[in-house]
Amino acid sequence: MTDTTIREYTGERASESQDEEPIEQEDETLVCPECGGSLATDSERGETVCEECGLVVSEDEIDPGPEWRAFNANEKDEKSRVGAPTTNMMHDKGLSTNIGWQDKDAYGNSLSSRQREKMQRLRTWNERFRTRDSKERNLKQALGEIDRMASALGLPESVRETASVIYRRALDEDLLPGRSIEGVATASLYAAARQAGTPRSLDEIEGVSRVEKDEIARTYRYVIRELNLEIQPADPESYVPRFASELNLSDEVERRARDLLQTAKQEGVHSGKSPVGLAAAAVYAASLLANEKVTQSEVSDVASISEVTIRNRYHELLDAEGQML
């Protein structure tokens, strides 16, 4: 074959390939071969159907989803084989590997002494890689403290998550120098509880924390000021359900306590008063009005406030209620 023939042959092949390209591109568009209408994919049936004429263009498509079905959240969690979602409550957000402490294999059999030593070395090195720098060690200690205190106070997981985010922000903005890790962690939890509408008093927070009340209050004011957190003053009514529940009082007492506090707000009695003291006094007064007597000492123990405060606020609430009547 001569050079001229080769050039002519290659030129013809090139022109043919150029002519074929538009045809391939046209085939890739999702249009119905019958009417030219648009196609829609039905993932439940595994079919591609024309929206205009209903022609089934393809069927028995591969389903990329799981092979199991779940009818509620619990079944979904039990059957799912993927890892837990990322969370701010762990210093590595739950993305690292965790080696269990049980010295057993996949079949439940105990490991030999040599294998146990090997697993212990792996755990040691795994822990070192998980906390490689001072920031990660700081986070690990602080988030552990937040989780411990939240468990002791009975706070929900959403509050722990918010407290972890607040602490991470404080760490990123370099607010920790000159302050203890426990103090900032406690202040973050206190702020998160108030933001979520499930506040705890400073006395309750101090009871589970490793720092003093004055340091908690001082660090809390500093954190919310530097991070520009918008936290409303605690509402006395938010304490009522917990106090009534711990004292085993009825819904009638809780309702009357709310009415007393609403009346106090209208009369301006609540101004400058501790919301915990007002809530405790309202619960005590409502229990007397509903003939479900509890002692001031019992209310004092639940609310972590003195009996003198309860007596003073109790008379003020009843006086405000009398003015309204």
From TrEMBL:
Compositional bias per record (Basic and acidic residues), positions renumbered to this chain: 1-16
Database matches in SUPFAM superfamilies: Cyclin-like (SSF47954), Zinc beta-ribbon (SSF57783)
Annotated Acidic residues bias: 17-29
Polar residues bias locations: 85-97
A single MF term (Gene Ontology): DNA-binding transcription factor activity
Keywords, in A-Z order: Metal-binding, Repeat, Transcription, Transcription regulation, Zinc, Zinc-finger
Record GO biological process: DNA-templated transcription initiation
Renumbered ranges of Sequence repeats: 144-227, 238-319
Sequence ranges assigned to domain TFIIB-type in this UniProt record: 28-58
Entry's family note: Belongs to the TFIIB family.
Function text: Stabilizes TBP binding to an archaeal box-A promoter. Also responsible for recruiting RNA polymerase II to the pre-initiation complex (DNA-TBP-TFIIB).
NCBIfam families with a match to the protein in the record: PRK00423.1 (NF001658)
Protein name in the entry: Transcription initiation factor IIB
Chain's gene name: tfb
